[in-house]
Amino acid sequence: MNTRTTNKRRLRAELPLHLMLVPGIIVTLIYAYGPMLGIVMAFQKFKPLLGFFKSEWVGFKNFEYVFNLPDFTQVLWNTFFISIMKIAFGLLIPLILALLLNEITKNWFKRLIQTSIFLPFFLSWAVLGGVLIEIFSLKGPVNGLISAVGVEPIMFMGINEWFVSIIIGSDVWKGMGYNMIIFLAAIVSINANLYEAAEVDGAGKWKQMVHITLPGMAPIIILMCTLSLGGVLNAGFEQILILYNPAVYESADVIDTFVYRLGLFDQQYAPAAAVGLFKSVISVALVSLSYYLAYRLTNYRIF
Amino acid sequence: MRRTTASLIVMIMLIVALAACSGNDNAGGNNSKQGNDPSANKGSNVSGNQSDSGPQDPLGKYEEPITVTQVLAYRAPEEGDALKGVTPETNGYLKDLKEMLNIDLKYEWSVPADQFEQKFSLAIASGDLPDIMQIDYNTYEKFKEQDVLADLTDAYKNYASPLLKKTIEADNGFALKSLTTDGKLLGVATSGEGVVQIVWIRSDWLANLKLQPPTTIDELEKVAEAFVKNDPDQNGSDDTYGIVFNKNLLGWGFDARGAFYSHGAYPGAWIKDADGKLVAGEVQPETKTALARMQSWYKNGILDKEFALRDENKASEDIVASKVGIAFGEWWYPNWPLNLNKDNDPKAEWIPLMLPSLDGSAPGKTLISRTVSSILVVNKKAKHPEAAIKMANFYLELSKPKYAVKESPDFKGAKNGYIYLWFQPRFYYPKMFDEVMAKVSDAIDAKQDQLDLPDDFPGAGEAQSVFTNAKKFFENPKDNAAWGMWYSRGARDGGVGLSKKVVDEKHTVYNEYYGPPTPTMLEKGASLNKLMIETFTKIIMGSAPITDFDKFADSWKKLGGNDITDEVNAWYAENAVKE
């Protein structure tokens, strides 16, 4: 009785706050959940003008069609390769940078480096793409440098191995500032007494890093690793679309660019939706797995 | 009861009177025909817009205003003197359409032209289509299959003006036939024969190096090599190359189509082989020969090392910057970008040549693809399908010399707010460019001051503007924009002139397939196309050996090419108009 009245009173007091949620929920329903109904398209022989209700149902035909396309395995492999490389280097390099930056004692210098590393994060691929193509062109500065030391000019954007390296490298370079800040924050939160104690015990900078800094950061590192697993099928649509060309389709065509061409240029909506759904299912599985791993390994929970 | 009958009669009289007033000269001819036609008497045609009642006034005014909807791919007006501040909604055509026909035209949406395809795809996907559209053949097939198109049989029969009929049926009914299904005409269009491929070459560079215009592919190669090595612009630095390509090998300009055709190779087209069967050009031995030659071009620096990284617009910059001396392409180059090259480099001179010959006998054969495009269709839900035909009449009416010639007192053009680019449906007499070229050349040869055009000359505005530009150019040879118009559209030895000669002398090969995409094409076409472009690009760049062509041809056949070939031949046996 008593709890019920307090509950009632609480509800009345908090009702306006709950009501404030309503617009957000409605917007989410309309723009995030509503379009999900479009998934039915993946199981239909979808004809736009007949709509979802009159198009013919075909079961898993669209999936069969897509998986049997001659280049699908290649595309899938490209996606995995590019994104795993991006994840690996995208964590490793910021980690090293954070550790190095942590050793810098001059505060102004540290800030300067930190800011300049973070800066490319804010540039859009549309701008960066044009710049990259120019920089790596045959008459660009990179080839200028290497021909100055007597190496033949290389067409970086037209050779598969180089192109993929540039895709991965530029993505890591662009995003490394962000992860670096997270790692720096993790380092700062380590108890300073530990370092003092280690110094008393005669540990040098290197030993301190190996035995105190890294173990102290471990939960954050593992957390970042597992969370990025969910994005394994996102190899960076915008970046690749802007940079690629027919000469490097073999290594650079990924699921997203593939769906883009299938859906918007060839107007095969249903197969494109099927690929999208396939991607989402894999992503949900990976996110759940990584969420579970994050919980087991670092005791991190969102909910 | 009696009162309603009386008012009906009054209304009919009013409509007839109005129609007679607004219908200009040709309306009279039609009205008299109506009297002779027995079917005209059957229908008691009250509102003047029912379609099953015999010939009607092609430009008759609706008694009540009607509204039709369209969508717009927005492009800035092409004309330099376009009236400032005109928007698609205040376009002069819309004002006249309202005045002459009492039709209110509403745009459901408009986006910049480069986003139109995507936006229109989305509109199709959401089923939200306007009343009147002008679409390509693929979209037409899709609409037909989904049964969203209105039957235009009667509307066309009864409302099309003589000029519209002349324009549409200039191909002896080919387009109308291919747009008729089960006796229903679902779309109205002209048919085209595609654009002739020619070669544009820097004649001042030829002169600098004391070379003759090349007529064979070997000579062309020698010239291109000289353009790479012998400093054709005589500026003392090694900054030129031979032939411009871009990453779309089969694109819309500055591409490799002409180079393929010169070798008798027609990738992307369906050619008749010795047994009379249709075969795909991309897997024929001629294509291999062409690719081998392009590979050597690439190796010798005749092609730009990075052509595969750049699109058409980027490639055109090399022409403007005087970096390249040879471009395979179409008649319009002088209009863009050659005129800009002349602005940039006053010494630059360009001439068009026929495609080089492979064996030295006859020039290379260009590909002629019969196409039906810009198809006028009407949404089934639209209340006035005949309005689309009337609007087509209206556009042709306004292209008559009376309105289209700048010097005419009734001139309706960009400078007083008539932006043709925004108005649909637009139809052009298919051979218009040829006729314009002939008329203008004749007038220039005869040193006329005025261009005399017959009253129903198709493309009068075009002819007049080419003529004016020709006059301007001869007065001031440094006016490169005027040169562009004259040399692309007017001169007998210019773009259109040479293209016409190519067709007249039959240096042509026909793409025999002009049907809709077959089921396997729809399913596998994208993959096969990707395979083709990827393989060809790599072979040319030397990152794959020429023997990869055989591998490509094998996989092409296995991955659906054979099925497509069967489907195409089945269609050919059944539908093709064989000559």
UniProtKB/TrEMBL annotation, chain B:
Keywords carried by this UniProt record: Signal
UniProt biased composition (Polar residues): 29-54
Recorded superkingdom: Bacteria
Signal sequence, renumbered to the chain: 1-19
Residues covered by region (Disordered): 29-62
PROSITE patterns: PROKAR_LIPOPROTEIN
Tagged with keyword Lipoprotein: no
UniProt xrefs under InterPro entries: Bact_solute-bd_prot1
Family matches, as PANTHER family: ARABINOSE-BINDING PROTEIN-RELATED, POLYGALACTURONAN_RHAMNOGALACTURONAN-BINDING PROTEIN YTCQ
Name the record gives this protein: Extracellular solute-binding protein
Organism: Paenibacillus mendelii
